[in-house]
Design a protein that fits this description.
The structure is a single chain. The chain is of the alpha/beta class. The protein contains 9 helices and 9 strands. The strands form 2 sheets. It has a 6-stranded parallel sheet with strand order 3-2-1-7-8-9, sandwiched between helices. Strand 7, helix 8 and strand 8 form a beta-alpha-beta unit. It is globular and about 50 Å long. 40% of the residues are buried. The model has no long low-confidence stretch (mean pLDDT 96). It binds ligand BV8. Its EC number is 2.3.1.286. It holds the Pfam family SIR2. Its cofactor is Zn(2+). It comes from Harenicola maris. It is found in: Cytoplasm.
Length: 226
């Protein structure tokens, strides 16, 4: 049993909970303009449009339920107290709703709000408006606490520390198309960790992994954990 397992999850893990992925057929970036909705420039240009996009996703995520893959990963962490680091690119709270604690949300979370003026963070109301005053400084410049393209992901030092001490790195339900997340497998390999990809089909970085399991996460992840 590897001493330290580092797991990275992506939108594919929440697909069977009814939350769309980004790049699959009918995915979010197929039907929405990423540059207008997930960049600081898009927010500066039209904050109301961006809030409408994230308000709808916050509403969907609130009504979604964790699936067997989320529960299996919680089970794995509980079985191996302190030896599993769970990093997610997902902004939903389905890992936590399945019982997982201390999940590293490297791209932020829908249930968080951030003041662009004073950097105060607070729980996001279900429906955010561009005119909402910051509860700390009063400035009407609050945004979803989400990492957009061109912005530095959260907790990168902690993530790099975990990757450099990994014995096994597992990527689940991610296309490997966005950096720095897509480069984590290389970092783990560089320190001699075993690497496993669990996905519906081969990702953009499939060749970087030692082994792979393909199929729906709700089946493959419980099978891998057991
Ligand atoms: C488009 C891409 C080329 N661009 C980037 O990577 C950019 C620029 C860049 C940086 N370095 C580079 C190097 C080369 C090229 C470009 C770059 N990166 C950045 O801007 C990042 C910030 C990127 C974050 C953007 N925010 C997101 N999300 C939050 C928003 C929101 O949610 O609205 S990214 C978003 O897309 C990413 C990919 O999505 P996935 O989760 O993988 O989903 P996807 O739909 O793509 O794939 C789903 C997969 O699941 C599978 N699947 C589907 N159903 C199932 C199923 N049922 N079961 C199992 N698997 C399934 C499918 O087969 C598929 O493979 C995720 O990270 C996700 O969070 N910032 C940064 O680099 O800062 C500097 C830096 C770097 C290092 C250290 C310090 C500073």
């Amino acid at each position: 049993m590897p001493h330290h397992i580092v797991i990275l999850t992506g939108a594919g893990l929440s697909a069977e909970s009814g939350l769309g992925t980004f790049r699959d057929k009918g995915g979010l970036w197929e039907t929405n303009d990423l540059a207008k909705l997930a960049t600081p420039e898009g927010f500066a240009e039209d904050p109301a449009r961006v809030h409408a996009f994230y308000n709808a996703r916050r509403d969907n995520a609130a009504r979604a339920e964790p699936n067997p893959a989320h529960h299996a990963l919680h089970h794995l962490s509980a079985q191996h107290e302190g030896r599993v680091t769970l990093i997610t690119q997902n902004v939903d709270a389905l890992h936590e709703r399945a019982g997982s604690e201390d999940v590293i949300h490297m791209h932020g979370a829908l249930h968080g709000a951030l003041c662009a003026a004073c950097e105060h963070r607070y729980p996001a109301p279900p429906q955010m408006q561009a005119s909402d005053p910051c509860p700390n400084c009063g400035a009407p410049r609050t945004r979803p606490d989400i990492v957009w393209f061109g912005e530095i992901p959260y907790q990168m030092e902690r993530i790099e520390g975990a990757l450099l001490s990994a014995d096994l790195f597992v990527a689940i339900g991610t296309s490997g198309s966005v950096y720095p997340a897509a480069g984590f497998v290389q970092l783990a390999r560089a320190v001699g960790a075993q690497t496993l990809e669990i996905n519906l089909d081969p990702s953009d970085v499939a060749s970087d992994f030692d082994t792979a399991t393909y199929g729906p996460a709700s089946e493959t992840v419980p099978a891998w954990v057991d």
